[in-house]
Write a structure and sequence with these properties.
2 copies of one chain form a homodimer. With 405 residues, chain A is of the alpha/beta class. Chain A contains 14 helices and 13 strands. The longest helix of chain A is centred in the C-terminal third of the chain and has 40 residues. The radius of gyration of chain A is 21 Å and the shape is globular. The N and C termini of chain A lie far apart (54 Å).
């Protein structure tokens, strides 16, 4: 029997299970304190509201809920999202909105739409690991966005891309409470990114997965809202907004959306039709039912809970981390990003931490398109409770101090 | 403002809304009798069972139903499918099964896994339109399978593929009650296809969407079962089985599966992780709940209903079609394939039929990778009732006779 490996297309030949996936298997062990996940606290899911939603949908609207439907998504949900986007300063119509099976699918489709092999994608170092995984299927190279310290010039990005045999095709980042750093791009940084996208004439993907989870500080306008203001009309913008209900309502229904200029949405509808016909209608109806009634209340509940845990984690880091270790102070989201002393390796520390102090986290190199960031780690605080945070960070601080000694 | 068209990757630049999609918009008009759809009758959906399933899942298992989960799918559903596949003569384990968001997604992921631009995909003329749409995103050329009248030799397929600048990378067909023809490939035809796949060392995708819907005649073994027998073990086979609950239970939950050699499933898990993380867990749990209790009963119900409508349609065709028109006699599935007299154009006939007799169907050329088949049309009988079938076919027969006169 021949080898399957020989039969795969180039783009998929080198796909391997990520170390992080292997790592997550360890977390079933109950004595491990885990800051490794990136998942919401299920205690916050609006279970009763979701149960009532499915009951209502299957009582009143079963035929449509269970039948094939259109690729662009359930119209009342898209109408609700038009209002939701208006609240973020984005004037749009339902033709600017397509529903996706979670925002991960949005990244896959956008990669499919814009990236040819050898093209360049601009992103921050570090960036969302899942975005790199989604885009990698289309074989891009990456170059670095640095919205606060200074991006390269459009000409420099172009030259580097051409030298690598492709074109600069898109830019991607999470501007609010990013995964993995928890950091937020400033208003001026956003304006610089939007100008860069227009100068390069490329789409700028705004991953807004955590945007609603602001605990404190002043809200910064969405990049799509800023581009609408600059460009006069959403159909003249270059920002593609990728939204998600996963961090506010629940990830299990897999409902996200894209809001962008109409030609992009029309093309994504064709891609989706060919790729999975449509996201499950019943889930879109259920999400609409819950969002319409409870979105604001639910977001407040999640914010309140994560704000408290963010505080527990920042307190614990301040108490237990040795000098020479630094970390971000997120105003929202689910993560703190820790920089270890130069020369310390996050992956080696993880191996050690699992063995000796039974604490898990994600080494930072995985989030870097160029494999740098070895002395960084990502800590999640949305799932562990106060006691786990204090005990885990105390153990981790001691381990790091020992390693430094 | 620049033009978005210039920004798309090669593979998506030429995507256009299909004429069929435009056509389907017309069907909202209530006075049209439609044989154009390919959708199940919602009256047959097991609504009470599905409602009970969501209620049970959200009562007993809400945390897991609403949380992120693994890309390979909900384990109890995969275990149920191991038993289901055993019933089809396929001995496998859960490592041979991945859940997909409907079988359309399976086709997209298989295209992503196996096709590089310029490669050759073998399929029947005609074939499932959605498969052509899914594969087209990966820029293949197509060559023709002809399992009954005679495939080309492996060397001839190879030479043609190489002359076109690629390799023969996979074969795809619906062997049972195909969309669009309703025809089934014989046992000998299946054996020839399996031998061809092994000789060419390529995967042979068995689209089994309609396989459970046999009304009469002797069942023919699944190609995967035949390859297991030939190759001794599923992990030595080249057949990739794509299954779906859409035609038996409901399409709205978007649950399908792939059953194949373990290395292929492992690779598809990585693709799925990067492309949408996982199919909605809550829907997988609900489908499992219903399948476990009602699958056999539900399949019997659907078969009985569609058998009757198939009979109504074949009777009506015999009564109302003029000499010179021929059609298939499907033993299952949802479609009859009509061949019009040479020189008559299905697309022109549709335009005429919509205008004068208010009857809709799908012109056959869309299902041909080479655009041939202009004098064919697809008729669906799973949705219209007896009266609609008789009235619609009577009107259509008269129109065709008039056109021939």
């Amino acid at each position: 029997m021949g080898d399957w490996d020989a039969l795969y297309a180039t783009r998929t030949k080198n796909m391997r299970a990520s170390e992080i996936r292997e790592l997550l298997k360890l977390l079933d062990q109950p004595d491990i304190i885990s800051f490794a996940g990136g998942i919401p606290d299920p205690a916050l899911f609006p279970k009763d509201a979701i149960k009532a939603a499915y009951d209502a949908v299957l009582t009143k609207n079963a035929d449509a809920a269970l039948q094939y439907s259109v690729s662009e998504g359930y119209r009342p949900l898209r109408e609700w999202l038009v209002q939701h986007m208006a609240g973020l300063g984005v004037a749009c119509s339902i033709d600017n909105i397509i529903i996706t099976t979670g925002s991960q699918q949005a990244l896959d489709y956008l990669g499919k739409l814009f990236i040819s092999p050898g093209d360049t994608v601009l992103t921050t170092w570090p960036t969302y690991l899942g975005a790199l995984q989604a885009f990698n299927a289309y074989e891009p190279r990456y170059d670095r966005l640095n919205p606060e310290q200074g991006n390269m010039t459009p000409a420099a990005y172009r030259e580097a891309a051409e030298a690598a045999g492709g074109e600069v095709q898109m830019a991607y980042l999470t501007a609010d409470f990013s995964n993995p750093t928890g950091e937020t791009v400033s208003h001026d940084g956003r304006i610089r990114l939007i100008e860069l996208a227009h100068e390069l004439d490329i789409p700028l993907i705004e991953d807004a997965a955590y945007q609603a989870l602001r605990f404190d500080g002043e809200p910064t306008a969405s990049m799509l809202a800023l581009d609408c203001e600059r460009s006069g009309d959403i159909n003249n913008t270059r920002v593609i907004y990728s939204g998600s209900f996963s961090k506010t309502l629940t990830p299990g229904l897999r409902v996200g959306w894209i809001c962008a200029a109409q030609p992009v949405v029309a093309k994504l509808v064709l891609i989706k039709q060919a790729a999975d016909l449509h996201s499950p209608t019943i889930n879109q109806m259920a999400i609409h039912h819950v969002a319409e009634r409870d979105f604001t209340k639910q977001v407040e509940k999640v914010r309140g809970s994560y704000r408290q845990r963010r505080d527990y984690m920042l307190d614990a880091l301040a108490r237990f981390m040795p000098a020479g270790v630094t970390w971000t102070k997120p105003e929202g989201g689910m993560f703190v990003w820790v920089t270890l002393p130069e020369g310390m390796d996050g992956a080696a520390l993880l191996a050690q931490a699992l063995k000796t102090v039974r604490v898990a986290f994600v080494p930072g190199a995985a989030f870097h398109a160029d494999g740098s960031g070895k002395n960084t780690i990502r800590l999640n605080y949305s799932l562990p409770n106060k006691e786990a945070i204090e005990t885990g960070i105390s153990r981790l601080g001691k381990l790091i101090a020992d390693e430094m000694a």
